[in-house]
Specification:
Blueprint lengths: L2 H17 L5 H21 L5 H19 L6 H16 L1 H24 L3 H6 L1 H12 L12 H21 L6 H22 L4 H34 L6 H17 L1 H15 L7 H28 L1
Keywords: Membrane, Transmembrane, Transmembrane helix
Organism: Filimonas zeae
InterPro entries: SpoIIM-like
Length: 312
């Protein structure tokens, strides 16, 4: 078809769209699709014609109108957590797996280091904390440290402290991830030594059932935070076919998105630690329920759901 025939055939429809644009979202979407098809045709057969610019202008207006009226834009925060974060996490599942494996390794190193060296726990936690915990064990309240202080103040302090750790882990990614790796390793070794301390006092099962009330989410978020650092470091070290600056921008964007997943999760972990873990006398079924639900939330949101989105 010659250009003149193409214009004559569609001119009235284009003018109608220009002068009387549709107001209903579905009609606007249909007009956008038609304009894109016409634009593609004109670019293919009349690449040097001005009609392409005209159609591009009409299509752009429809595109902006669609997204201005899109109901999802009214719920950007919901969309961010329901779609954006899981999508980015799914994109970096390999790094998430590496973070998890390293964390398990560091915890094991801490556990066996404390097993081999009786003074290791004191080197990690200090004499004051170890002596206090030993006194609590002798007094029949081995996890009494969680019952100290006001519940609300503890909740606020724990959230701020854990969030600062997560953000520092992410920020360390800009320095090739080395500061993040050190912090991550130290936290893993500390947790391993902590568990060995209770294991040596025949309280391993009790410690897991108590600490994992908040620890299921809290420890998982350490892994997620280190993943965000790896994403940032990888973009800096291995830019691929784009420039290092472009790769760094993309890595920083993805890393920030992953790091933001820590905010609601750490808020929930701080709530459990500040208000729930302190009640050491709660029944076993309730502990198991909280731990199981926490595990399902973490596994579902960070592993299963991103895979489902990726397939879609």
């Amino acid at each position: 078809m010659r250009e003149a025939q193409f214009i004559k055939k569609n001119k009235d429809r284009w003018l109608s769209m220009q002068e009387k644009p549709a107001t209903h979202p579905d009609e606007t979407a249909n007009e956008f699709i038609q304009l894109v098809e016409d634009l593609g045709y004109s670019k293919t057969f009349y690449p040097d014609s001005g009609i392409g610019t005209y159609l591009n202008t009409l299509a752009t207006k429809r595109y902006l109108n669609i997204y201005k009226n899109n109901r999802q834009q009214k719920n950007r925060i919901i969309r961010f957590f329901v779609y954006d974060i899981p999508t980015v996490i799914g994109k970096h599942h390999r790094l998430l797996l590496i973070s998890f494996i390293l964390f398990v390794l560091f915890v094991a190193i801490g556990f066996f280091s404390a097993w081999q060296d009786p003074t290791f726990v004191r080197q990690i936690f200090g004499d004051g904390y170890v002596d206090m915990t030993e006194n609590n064990i002798r007094g029949g309240a081995p996890f009494g440290v969680y019952s100290y202080g006001n519940e609300m103040l503890s909740f606020i302090y724990l959230f701020i402290n854990n969030l600062s750790v997560a953000l520092r882990l992410f920020a360390g990614g800009i320095l090739l991830g080395l500061p993040s790796l050190y912090m991550f390793m130290y936290n893993g070794i500390m947790i391993g030594a902590f568990e060995y301390f209770f294991y040596s006092n025949s309280l391993m099962e009790a410690s897991i059932l108590t600490i994992m009330i908040h620890g299921t989410i809290e420890l998982s978020m350490i892994v997620v935070a280190f993943t965000s650092a790896l994403v940032l470091a990888q973009s800096w070290l291995f830019p691929g076919t784009i420039t290092r600056l472009q790769a760094l921008k993309a890595g920083a964007r993805d890393g920030i998105v992953i790091a933001m997943a820590n905010v609601p999760m750490l808020l929930l972990a701080a709530f459990f630690e500040g208000f729930v873990t302190r009640h050491s006398g709660m029944p076993l079924w309730l502990r198991l329920l909280i731990i199981t639900v926490s595990f399902v939330i973490i596994a579902g949101y960070f592993v299963v759901y991103p895979i489902i989105l990726k397939k879609k």
